[in-house]
# Entry
Amino acid sequence: MTNRKEVAKLAGVSEATVSRVLNGIGPMKDSTRQRVLQAAKQLNYELNAVASSFARGRSGNLGVVLPHVPKVHLFSTYYFSELLGGIGEAVHSGGYGLLLLFRDPTAVYDYVSLYRTQRVDACIILGSSAVEAERTAVHRLADERLPYCVMDQRFDHPLLNIVAADHEQGSYDAVRHLIDKGYGRIGFLNGAPQYSNSRDRLAGYRRALLEAGVAEDEMLVYEGNYSRTSGRRAAGQVYRDLGRLDAVFVSNDRMAIGLMQGLRELGCSLPDDLKIVAYDDSDAASFTEPPLTTVRVPFYEMGRLAADCLLKQLADRDKTDAPAPLIREKLRTELVIRKSSGN
Amino acid sequence: MTNRKEVAKLAGVSEATVSRVLNGIGPMKDSTRQRVLQAAKQLNYELNAVASSFARGRSGNLGVVLPHVPKVHLFSTYYFSELLGGIGEAVHSGGYGLLLLFRDPTAVYDYVSLYRTQRVDACIILGSSAVEAERTAVHRLADERLPYCVMDQRFDHPLLNIVAADHEQGSYDAVRHLIDKGYGRIGFLNGAPQYSNSRDRLAGYRRALLEAGVAEDEMLVYEGNYSRTSGRRAAGQVYRDLGRLDAVFVSNDRMAIGLMQGLRELGCSLPDDLKIVAYDDSDAASFTEPPLTTVRVPFYEMGRLAADCLLKQLADRDKTDAPAPLIREKLRTELVIRKSSGN
# Structure
């Protein structure tokens, strides 16, 4: 392999000068720089990627920042694995690497330093929520107008970049479906309200009830945490309320699966005793018994779209000094009807 | 923020010298280097991560190289998501980043250049198989004794680093369970033989039959590709052979789920018409109808172990010049008995 010495000799400069040229450091006469680049090219001198990214001010990596939750197999949830799959597809097409980084959800994560230290050229924030530390961290990032995108979580910042799904409409469609089938007494098992997409689901649920003239019964709104275990835990409460319920809308498939398992263990027959509409249309939705009526969310497409938008911003930055347009995408969901809602 | 100019001024050197010191480029008088480092420290001059890794010869990233298969949502398969989860956990604990990179399975991937260009300090190879291009690439990597580990795929190289599960024994246990229950006519739906873990499963299947004095019937060995669709596709053949089958051992849960869906559509009642033992013990195994008897594979632990071994090699490299010991780990599987095998 060619070394720096040979390049220096051919170019007639010192080795230090070769390094300075190839690393883009300091002032340099243009004729000298050209001579060095010419020699390096002629000798096929392989630029070390780090040196080369240092020169270009690039890492070649798109960062994906996830919450670190001990013992939770995050990648094994449909939500994260599909988002990550879509991001991976875009990153692969764009010739980038995907750098996964974990943040502590209780601390203010220093996104800005990821850019300043050139670990990433852009980043996507997954699994974010409206807790104070995360809000502070994302607001700082938005203030700097760095290339970033928050996935599926609203923050109240004028420069927020976000790709989300229309969960208000998705939830409305789910509840509306039950009402149209004649089931008026509809409970709701939601995830935690720190996620804007939980609050959006609640808004959609309420809109559908209001529109149908059904009074909301707060006692029939249950809270889980999007895990199967939390769905199973809710089964006791739902079972207790069975006399007041025709159906339950559940905020994701995993909780719905846990709820069905729990109810079956308590002796329920599904969907006869209770109609269920879930959310996500994960793989599992089609092979539970009964198969789940559920709201399909295009997570893979959302991940791909966010990554594509960011890679485009990076490419455009080389062409223009104009600030990048904001990313504001809201994708449509789709109700998929199966047997759990009594069909 | 402090800039290079101020550091140069305080140290009494040129800006170029500051860069050369901080980037570890070229020869430098030790007293000069000390003066620059002292000034940088005094002024809290933040070393750019790229410059800093360049100086240390490190990226701070563990690479994970995956096959790129268009349209396949790789992260949404239990196998990859669990392995990745375990790797992520180790990488997070070790303060590393996880750099995901995709390879074209038909080309010879240049692993070595990942190290030479300092994109990664070590790497884990997932989803590898014995096709010629992959064999060549892995052999080159092994020849160089770089810190790497192949996940769950054997290659015939004396310096192979591998973390795997004992699929021969796992498969033996699965088939033995069926034999012990009195089901002697056992078919086998396997994945493609380019994976050593498919060949290991076949070996375990054969050992159990041989030991029980059951003659293998080649007509009852079916091939899928570990996807649900391929399991569904196999349902037609299995259905045709029902008169000669008591049970089928299936190489992963996804294929088993597809097979059960297909058989049910053809009018079968499960597990009455056919006993099934699957493999993986993915999330879905417990909520299919009937729930799957399956072989639990500790994928998460395998991922964590491989990453931990590599991070330890990297840490040890700073302490000793001795070559790192080979990584040769084979983890045990465990049969989980549920209703699909007729219990």
The first helix of chain B runs from residue 4 to 11.
